[in-house]
């Protein structure tokens, strides 16, 4: 329990407008009705076991500086402040005063926020976004303003009902610190309790109700029957949950839920169901034979992620979340290698964390030190002191040197031991731009003046510096490739009649190679695209891409993206992935200028994408407002071998071409119809792509499928277990002996039921033999992947 006794567990601060008030009332109710799971309630380290009282003023009362003011008293006697954040709260001087007063009483660590509308920068008051401190230096007092990122539950939705749905899970982020708990622990226990409660309570109710009216053996039989039915329902619900995750590209969650559906959940053994096997087969992607990038792994953080960075080899990824923490994962295995919690961040857009090489990262910690950490072995190697006001950090490609830049100086360190080997003083009257870049063993940087910028460089071996004249008043970006430097520069404002944007190439000694200038085309990014020793300079504006010859600077490619460009991911082999403003992913081959839709190469179900990057063996995507990254890769069946037979002959032999008729209602809506060999069962596909499995003898529907991808035209017969296989040109289906769907496979060409073998085509139309896996084999593969 807390040492200090508060009258209120929490004070809710909100703007008294319709939506803000609605959410505040809901939160008030949820908080006072919230009950901890028993497994957590028994813990001895809890601050409290129940939220007793929450203060929410029903009217927007004026707050004064008088300590006897009832609002001030309530703030003083509240342990936590919950702020309902929308663009409207910034307009309320009273809400901002409440925040200011509470922080003065209890500190900002006790402030919790709920984002209900708008972006964070427009919805969080300045009192939450910035922390001010008084610094005395040489007798001069200055106010230092440091950006901070408040912990937020994000319940932004398109409707009140959607917001309420999000609130039930997101509010755990607010509830957890009130009880002194971690969000992850409370979230998992809450989910487990909810599902187990539904299952066990329903079973208990059924047992009680039946036991009252029925006695003896008959009662026990009925009770067992009811319990079995309820367990089957629970297993089906877990399978349904798995498929929902799968449709959201959350394959890791999908696999865990599917595995639980057919094994056990929270100590309760689950029965086998065909729905469970279907969900497990889908989540495993066991019959993928490569060729298409599909979701394979999730990398999950404790809060919404706003940015990720890849290591030099693109084998490791680091993601920054809104707790100002960071996680480092191995992209191939999905293993979490390290979690950083002591990062100092000036804002979510300015976090100083960079890879040194493929085993080390450097970051600015909360004590103003730059730490160099081996994230593979979770070991700190050394630290650079007095770096609190650092502007940027950058290591060279080889990981030999680290440049640390302040506004007025740059210090260069040996990355092996932390020894400072060179210092550069910035010319008086100028300041350092954050653009610093290494080219071999030369460091290039930009000094900003009042009217122009100067590009300078220093040779780390000779310590000699040289200057590069530049006619532009802003350097937007500098990148290096091989022995050359490429600059994206601007000349804007009153100095010129038209705004000028230029791509400039210089060699490592500062000599100009070429310059390409555009009028009134606001290029914002420059990248170097490589393929088999060739290079192209790629520059882009918000809706245009231009490829420049690295030798002459001449435009060799030019393409427009009418939807607008949101982000660009640079891949290998000259390939570029473009995210349009509408969320579409467009493929672009830089060496030919060819653009193409990614649908046939990249299966993605995410509508709103924040960031897309290429990694060592695939793509990594960050959805908007999510706490996880998704990796996409070409998943390959490890048991496949190339088929050497005549595919066309197999297709011809298995194609159902007999004309048949059947007496059934709405027969005019039938698109296709195929029979089993004994003509006792018909598979009927309708024009709306739904399917009925029809018992011809008894004239009744056995099972229905809501949606199939394509009308089946081929039937392959039954295997030894009675499973039956059908296919169209696009995909194939397997049904068990009771005609329940067990799996769906894209590009199924043929099924050899005698050899227990499938023939599946990849995206290049190469055919592969893949074994048909038993249920036990599926379980074994799922267990290995989960563990």
What this model shows, in words?
The chain has 787 residues and is of the alpha+beta class. Among the domains are: 8-181, Toll/interleukin-1 receptor homology (TIR) domain (Rossmann fold, 3-Layer(aba) Sandwich); 187-284, no CATH class; 641-786, Thrombin, subunit H. It has 14 helices and 55 strands. The protein has a five-stranded parallel beta sheet, with helices on both faces. The chain has a four-stranded antiparallel beta sheet with strand order 10-43-42-41. It has a four-stranded antiparallel beta sheet with strand order 11-12-13-14, with no helix packed on it. Strand 25 and strand 26 (442-448) form a beta hairpin. Helix 10 packs antiparallel against helix 11 and helix 12 packs across helix 14 (775-786). It is globular. The two termini are 37 Å apart. Mean pLDDT is 84; it is low at 194-217.
């Amino acid at each position: 329990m807390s040492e200090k006794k508060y009258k209120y567990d929490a004070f809710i601060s909100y703007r008294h407008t319709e939506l803000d008030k609605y959410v505040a009332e809901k939160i008030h109710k949820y908080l006072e009705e919230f009950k901890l799971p028993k497994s957590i309630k028994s813990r001895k380290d809890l601050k409290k076991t129940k939220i007793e009282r929450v203060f929410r003023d029903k009217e927007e009362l004026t707050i004064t500086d008088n300590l006897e003011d009832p609002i001030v008293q309530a703030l003083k006697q509240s342990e936590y402040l919950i702020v309902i954040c929308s663009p409207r709260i910034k307009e309320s001087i009273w809400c901002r005063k409440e925040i200011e007063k509470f922080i003065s009483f209890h500190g900002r660590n006790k402030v919790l926020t709920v984002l209900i509308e708008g972006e964070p920068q427009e919805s969080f008051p300045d009192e939450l976004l910035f922390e001010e401190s008084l610094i005395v230096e040489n007798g001069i007092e200055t106010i230092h303003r440091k950006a901070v990122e408040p912990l937020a539950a994000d319940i932004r939705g398109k409707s009140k009902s959607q917001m309420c749905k999000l609130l039930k899970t997101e509010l755990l982020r607010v509830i957890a610190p009130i009880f002194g708990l971690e969000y992850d622990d409370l979230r998992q226990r809450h989910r487990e309790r909810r599902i187990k409660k539904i299952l066990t309570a329903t079973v208990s109710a059924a047992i009680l109700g039946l036991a009252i009216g029925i006695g003896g053996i008959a009662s026990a039989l009925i009770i067992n029957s009811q319990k079995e039915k309820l367990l089957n329902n629970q297993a089906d619900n877990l399978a349904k949950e798995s498929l929902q995750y799968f449709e959201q590209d959350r394959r890791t969650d999908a696999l865990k839920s599917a595995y639980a559906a057919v094994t056990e959940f929270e100590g309760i053994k689950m029965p086998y169901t065909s729905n469970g096997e279907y969900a497990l087969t889908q989540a495993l992607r066991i019959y993928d034979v490569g060729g298409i990038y599909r979701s394979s792994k999730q990398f999950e953080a404790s809060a919404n992620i706003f940015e990720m960075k890849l290591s030099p080899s693109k084998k490791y990824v680091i993601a920054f979340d809104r707790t100002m923490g960071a996680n480092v994962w191995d992209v191939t295995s999905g293993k979490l290698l390290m979690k950083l919690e002591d990062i100092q961040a000036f804002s979510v857009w300015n976090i100083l964390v960079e890879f040194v090489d493929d085993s080390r990262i450097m970051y600015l910690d909360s004590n103003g030190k730059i730490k160099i950490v081996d994230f593979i072995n979770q070991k700190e190697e050394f630290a650079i002191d007095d770096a609190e006001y650092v502007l940027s950090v950058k290591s060279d490609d080889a990981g030999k040197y680290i440049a640390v830049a302040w506004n007025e100086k740059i210090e260069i360190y040996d990355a092996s031991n932390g020894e400072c080997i060179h210092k550069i003083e910035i010319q008086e009257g100028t300041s350092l731009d954050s653009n610093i870049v290494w080219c071999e063993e030369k460091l290039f940087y930009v000094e900003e003046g009042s009217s122009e910028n100067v590009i300078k460089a220093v040779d780390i071996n000779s310590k000699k510096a040289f200057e590069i004249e530049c006619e532009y008043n802003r350097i937007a970006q500098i990148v290096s490739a091989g022995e050359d430097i490429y600059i994206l520069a601007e000349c804007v404002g009153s100095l010129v009649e038209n705004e000028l944007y230029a791509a400039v190439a210089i060699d490592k000694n500062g000599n100009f190679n070429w310059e390409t200038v555009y009028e009134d085309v606001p290029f914002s990014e420059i990248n170097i695209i490589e393929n088999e020793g060739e290079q192209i300079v790629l520059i882009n504006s918000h809706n245009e891409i231009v490829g420049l010859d690295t030798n002459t600077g001449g435009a060799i490619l030019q393409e427009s993206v009418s939807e607008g460009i949101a982000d660009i991911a640079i891949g290998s082999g000259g390939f570029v992935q473009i995210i349009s403003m509408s969320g579409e992913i467009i493929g672009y081959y830089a060496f030919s200028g060819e653009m193409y839709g990614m649908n046939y190469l990249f299966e993605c179900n995410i509508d709103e994408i924040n960031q897309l990057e290429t990694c060592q063996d695939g793509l990594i995507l960050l959805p908007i407002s999510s706490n996880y990254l998704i990796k996409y890769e070409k998943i390959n069946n490890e048991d496949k071998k190339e088929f050497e037979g005549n595919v066309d002959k197999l297709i011809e032999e298995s194609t159902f071409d007999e004309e048949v008729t059947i007496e059934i209602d709405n027969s005019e809506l039938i698109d296709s119809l195929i029979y089993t060999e004994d003509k006792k069962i018909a598979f009927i596909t309708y024009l709306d792509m739904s399917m009925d499995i029809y018992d011809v003898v008894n004239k009744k529907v056995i099972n229905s499928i809501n949606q199939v991808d394509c009308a089946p035209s081929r039937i392959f017969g039954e295997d030894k277990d009675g499973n039956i296989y059908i296919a169209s040109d696009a995909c194939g289906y397997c049904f068990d002996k009771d005609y329940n769907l067990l799996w769906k496979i894209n590009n199924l060409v043929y099924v050899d039921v005698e050899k227990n073998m499938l023939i599946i085509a990849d995206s290049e139309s190469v055919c592969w033999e893949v074994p048909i896996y038993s249920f036990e084999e599926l379980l074994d593969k799922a267990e290995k992947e989960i563990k």
